[in-house]
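Following up on my earlier thread - several people asked me to post the actual chain instead of describing it. Fair enough. Here it is, all 549 residues.
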Amino acid sequence: MTDRMPVDRRTALIAAGTAGAALAASPLLASPAAAATADAPADATATAATAGPASPAVAPGDSPLLLTTPGALGAPPVDGLHLTFGADPAREMYASWTTAKPVRRPRVRFGSLEGGHGDTVQAETRTYTDGASNRQVYVHHAHITGLRPDTTYVYSALHDGVLPDSAAFRTAPSGRKPFTFTSFGDQATPGTTWTTTASGGFTAGAATLASPAAGDIVAGIEQVAPLFHLLNGDLCYANINPDRLRTWDSFFQNNTRSARFRPWMPAAGNHENEKGNGPLGFSAYQTRFALPPNGEDAEFAGLWYAFTVGAVRFVVLQNDDVALQDGGDSYVSGYSAGRQKAWLERTLKAARRSRDIDWIVVCMHQVMISSSDANGADLGIRQQWGPLFDEYEVDLVVCGHEHDYERSHPIRGVVSGSETLTPNPVATDTGTVDTSKGTVHMVLGGGGTSSPSNQKFFSGSKAKVLTAVGAVGANGKKTPTYVFEDAPWIGVRDEKNPYGFAAFDVDPGTHAGGETRIHVTYYVVAQPDGKIAPLETFTLTRTRSDRRS
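Reply from S.P.:
Thanks for posting it. Predicted structure:
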């Protein structure tokens, strides 16, 4: 595994060190009223007055951080601060947070480590009303642009009447540079929620699928300190929890320990489909994340998108559009009428033709490969997207859905005559894989749920594939039909450990037309202490696309 970039490790210390010192010297922390007016226009006296009284004078020698006056009665705090990349990760970033009520002038102040918070950008507020509780949610997204590549920035999110919440981030490099990213799916939350009692009251209990591992894995990501993280769907399982909004809040409160310092780029899984939340059921997800545009109508915003870091093109997909399985609150298979597939083909084609792109990495939730007796592979994905992955030589697919770890041999095409379109392995070396010859699929579903499936792997070379769905059964879902297949594509799987994540060190190589590599480490998150330890390492390799003609 290559050495990690020291500047990324330093980022994790910024909030406690450099950023904190810069903020302590800033008028942002002088008082809540000053925080509300420090970047206000000259005619904003009325706005400043609404922020509440200023703090009492600070005696000489007292710390300016010891405030005795609340920000303002009724002003909600900055909650669940998190980052996502904009369309150009080298020059754009979104900083986002949530409030339970409207706020005045949500904004982000940002700047360099040396210069401090010199610029301000106003945030856009998006809102939706939860279809289950009829409660409204307000999410504020500040689109920070004009940034320099491969540069660390400090920033503070705030709105009138509250103290800022501060952190730092690093932009992506431009051009062929080394970097690290991580990935897992199926996280859930580590906390409790309210459930109703027979008498109409409430009692505390563990959130559905909650486990301590959902918290431990965040600490594991921070030990690696990647540039960014891919979250492969089924984020918090709000749709099957009694209080969907509290579940989302718990998700962000848990993950902000990492997501405020580095973008967490999500894919929407089947459990992001929530009854009553928009025509497709994804309004909560779409409101809470600001993501690169895909050129489609607003109803499809954030469901699929792409971004480039270094010489890697990342393509994030929403599988329920093509999957046969009935896995969400509503059955939406085919919802884009082919638009996502057409976008996918255009995106893959352009990436593979580009001399600036060496690698194509797809992030999605449901799976094309699985040898676990859980959900199984989905024939719909194999039919719709498998041929595109083959034609445009997708290097790596990271997904979740199955709550275990498994990776395939490199696959290209299908086994002749197979009813289930069984992926055809083109090599069996599990240490070094040439992805120009075949795509490696990694199931990374050990993100933290209390329902792991690592004990459900079939013995031998066996798998099951969902090939059709029938009438709605007693559980309210369309009845699946499964067909078993011989699975020569099985590479490596972890039957012992339920939780873990993968880290990917991108090595761009040294010269045009030379070899580029991605060194992969799969880390186990142990029970009960949450310590991480490498389970396996392997290397993906291919020739750079800037080879001379």
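DSSP finds ten helices and 29 strands in the chain. That should answer part of your original question.
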